[in-house]
Design goal:
By secondary structure, the chain is of the alpha+beta class. The chain is about 20% helix and about 25% strand. α1 runs antiparallel to α2.
Length: about 120
């Protein structure tokens, strides 16, 4: 396992690290802001869409994703929680699935589509 320093993420905000961890999952097509775009973390000069967190205070972290449906959704959500828990530690993690794509709908590239502005 690589450390945050080794992968160049030591200066990123925790929301950006959570977004990266989610997007590294092979079944995550992209992060999503939810119905009204409210699932986001606002940072100075930018926002991380699809991640709402105050993990540094131990509160709930919410992640909203669009999944490529290769396996049952509960399995994929559990895997995402574990990946995110590696970043946040032992906090509550809510995973919302905004949409799913079937393997026939798979985009050419399903990574890097997460929005960080």
């Amino acid at each position: 396992m690589t450390t945050e320093h080794e992968n160049g993420r030591e200066h990123e905000h925790v929301a950006e690290r959570i977004a990266a961890a989610a997007l590294e999952h092979p079944c995550v097509v992209r992060l999503d802001g939810g119905e009204y775009g409210t699932v986001a973390t606002h940072l100075p000069g930018r926002r991380v869409t699809g991640v709402r967190t105050t993990a540094d205070t131990g509160d709930t972290t919410e992640v909203c994703v669009v999944l490529l449906l290769r396996r049952p959704v509960p399995e994929l959500a559990a895997e995402l929680r574990e990946r995110i828990r590696e970043v946040t530690g032992e906090t509550r993690i809510d995973v919302t699935v905004a949409d799913v794509l079937t393997p026939e709908q798979e985009p050419e590239s399903n990574h890097g589509a997460g929005e960080t502005r």
